[in-house]
Amino acid sequence: MKNLNYGIIGNCRSAALISDKGAIEWCCLPEFDSSSIFAKILDTQIGGSFEIHCTDDYLITQKYLENTSILVTTFDNGADAFEINDFMPRYRKENLSYKVPPEIIRYFRKIKGAPQFKVHYDPKLEYAVGITSNYVKEDHVLSLSESTKFDSLFLYSNFDLEAVKNAHNITLEEDGYILLAYNEKILKTTLTKINLEFERTKSYWLGWADKTTHYKKFNKEIIRSAITLKLLSYEKTGAVLAAATTSLPETIGEVRNWDYRFCWIRDASMVVKVVSELGHKKMAKNYLQFIVDLIPDKDEKLQIMYGINKEKKLTEETLDHLSGYMGSKPVRIGNAAYSQRQNDIYGILMDVIHQQLSTFSNDTENGEELWNITKGIVWVVEKHWQEPDKGIWEFRTEERHFTFSKVLCWTAIDRAVKVAKILGKKTQLAKWEPLAATIKQDIMDNAWNESVQAFTQSYGSPDLDASVLLMENYGFIDAKDPKFVATVQGIERDLSNDGLLYRYKNKDDFGLPSSSFTICTFWFINSLYKIGETKKAEKMFKKLLSYSNHLGLFSEDIDFETKRLLGNFPQAYSHLALIETAINLSNISDDDQVLEAIKN
């Protein structure tokens, strides 16, 4: 069974996916949303890859260098062994800025014997449109795109360049390297310099992980997920990507294939809130500056998503020449959802703004701009909260009065009230507090379905939806409220399937959902914990963790039957929810378990 057994490497400028066999099968340079140089993950025939081939007697294993983003793939046949340390350089320079070149370093280290391998180097620039030709030059291999758009790539190595280009046998007699660079190098590349890049990058990640708050339980999983979220952040602007890939299908053979290499306000705001809680406030500051830069005018409306360089138009196209992941077409670049209206984004963004102003009130840059944005958000919510929208799941046709959107409209005003209190803005308090109360009453009157005995997906609907579990998370309702407890129980009854959750089971624009949306299961486990079912929550959590890939990474979806990972990868949504759940469950004490056993 094919699974998403990939590791991610990156440097907060771009990223690459490397298979458990050591093959680079997805990478875009120079940035996350650039055209691909390797895309075998989307077309095994023409997508392009960078593989290391050994004879069948070599056992291949893979792990991350602990508390770093450096991926180590080991090849061992008993007598001969070597490892490849794959990374993209990232470290602080003397001027305190970060060095994040658009480069991949493959550092080959001899372990024992005389290991042999072949390099299968097959870049396909510009999403594999047209032909990419490779030429051996004096000190590098030059790859040129002969399509309608010019592009180039440079390979440097202390191995014989003809052997690299032509897949001849290479015997590893001493340590070696292959450096892939988007830009031609000016200074000579040497093994000493490569080792220095390795040590600097390792030191950076070890330092970053050390600054991450540590917990009693699940610390390993929290650190790996935190590093993954950091890898999905974009240094230049502060944007946070939903995932590193495009068009990995939610279900094999279907058309739910989207480009996730953009910054969704909802996803990114959730990410920076949890990463900030882990002690990394700089990431939150950078993201809030990204928001400030997006809204220079007071009447500027917030889109649900933007390009990582603040692009506001994300025209969707299909790459029909690519066959798609396991034949799942179409392959899309761009995302038409940017033009949708989703009212929930205001509440989630306000939640982050409130967190930053309350935690770092004396240390928050652009506080005045954030207050302006707060007032603007209240204005928009006040004008539009009663209108239907596309909802958190981005239905592409029908608009409805989604419960989650309404709850997040309430959250926007509730957090704005809290911000006004922090800043001593009494005039706004007098106006905003009644508005929050009005929205809350509207939700209580219309979202609760008496016959279903649960808060449902939308007003007047009998359908359940996992997103309503976040009502408690955002403080809308107490975990012990009978209506919330009944909703959790109803969602388990209707949406749970072998320990995994549907987002919803009602028909949408593309038919009936047929895979589990990973974040929803984390939400449900969190809700079990909140209502006091801690033992059940911890058992489900450990089971869900077992469905990650070999490196502890999650995609967007999980197949109900096979438990294979599906959807774009790695998914920020999934990992931020993993962290939140792990933090909650790490607080469970032995006394809690005893009390629950007595109660039951």
Automatic annotation (TrEMBL):
Q: Which UniProt keywords apply?
A: Hydrolase
List, for all copies, the residue spans of the domain called Trehalase-like N-terminal.
8-133
What InterPro entries does the annotation carry? 6-hairpin_glycosidase_sf (IPR008928), 6hp_glycosidase-like_sf (IPR012341), GH15-like (IPR011613), Trehalase-like_N (IPR045582)
* One family name in Pfam for this protein: TREH_N
Signal peptide range equals none
Record GO terms (molecular function): hydrolase activity, hydrolyzing O-glycosyl compounds
Where the record annotates domain GH15-like, the positions are 219-582
Q: Which GO terms describe its biological process?
A: carbohydrate metabolic process
Q: Which SUPFAM superfamilies match?
A: Six-hairpin glycosidases (SSF48208)
Protein name (Swiss-Prot/TrEMBL): Glycoside hydrolase
Provenance organism: Flavobacterium faecale
